[in-house]
Amino acid sequence: MSEPLLTQLSERLARPVGESDRQRARLHLLDWLACVAGARKSEVAQAFFAGFQGDPKLKAAYLGNLLEMDDVHRTALLHPGPVIWPSAIRGASDKFEVDGLDAVLDAAICGYEAMIAIGASLDAHHYAHWHPTTSAGMFGAAAAEAAVAQLDVSHMANALALAGSVTGGFWQLRHSSNQAKQWHLLHLGLTGWQATEMAEAGVTGPLDLLEGQQGLYAAMTKEPGPLANNGDSWLIHTVSFKPFAACRHAHPAIDAAMELRKAGKLAAPFHVESYADALAFCDRPGPVTELDAKFSLQHSVAVVADGRDAKPEDFTEEAIAALADLRAQVTVAEDPAITERYPAHFGARVNGLELVDTLGDPERPVDEAAIIAKMESLAAWGGLDAAEADRAVEIALRGDKAEAVEALLEDWLT
Known about the structure:
Blueprint: H1 5-13, H2 19-39, H3 43-51, H4 56-63, H5 81-95, H6 101-119, H7 124-129, H8 132-135, H9 137-148, H10 153-164, H11 180-200, H12 216-220, H13 251-262, E1 270-274, H14 276-282, H15 290-294, H16 297-305, H17 317-322, H18 324-327, E2 330-334, H19 336-341, E3 348-350, E4 353-355, H20 368-381, H21 386-398, H22 402-413
Parallel strand pairs: 1-2
Antiparallel strand pairs: 1-3, 3-4
Helix pairs in contact: 1-10, 2-6, 2-20, 2-21, 4-5, 4-11, 4-22, 5-6, 5-9, 5-11, 5-22, 6-9, 9-10, 9-11, 10-11, 13-16, 20-21
């Protein structure tokens, strides 16, 4: 009889991390810090802060995906950064007193691995009903916490099993304006932390939680696949960065529209063709709220047509009002051929120009300079001065102290 899947995954998490892996993780850390910096002055953040006066690291967990600019894994259809980094950082500082940043980077790499491996095994039925950043993220949060704690394979597997036994998160949240996604992220960090503490103390969980007859696959999927595996490399190298302040399903259309604009060929009327999920999530011709606009193909293309660069300010209520006429000239439709390539490729066609992959994907990567520029831009949007952006860059890309990240969050969020 083969070992339970969670035990197999835990054995994989025990392998060594290389310096090139840590360098990749540093880019994702900076990217996450940029998202937190940009969200700190939002109305949602201020409302949360008014009712929650606690740990800045928990506040950061709440903010990581507010701008819809958090990193994303295409085939797993989830966002690892806002789940993994708060978990790794909190574990390092609050319980296990880890001093070196390398230990946090290594733990984050393990968290990305567990979250993506399980997320990619979930099927279309799961994605139709469940928020996979939550359902797979629970395993990622626990893996990051347990890796910081340096739990052995057996204890790691039990931490994953305990956390995963209470995972969930329904997509009903996207049918109204609410902050359930932010609550999901906060819940993941807290539960991953508790599962690690329990596993460290000897509490056990169902190791066959994924494949068991009443387990996650039986309850949440129809055709689960294998755990994702990147061979000798870690899965963090397969994660995409998001350069635009909108839902990832809108990025292909934004990218194609920008390419047309560069060539001087973006002219009304605008016709967008993309994959089925892009329309399911982002066919919103009349957005009302900022969140609506971030999930609107019509608004996203109008943003580009107006000469804007799809930054946070381009999805505010003021921008919604200003772009009404352009938005009315955007039509959208599914192209079955683009759907067939998805989710391995997030593509779109705008006025005849088709992009198979999108800026920020591994096939069309952004470089370190682009992520630094993102940090600078979002820090300014979040009311921080240029020195704070420089500080974040120095800590994330060249720092060696875990406590420096915690101090940065305390200064930003208290």
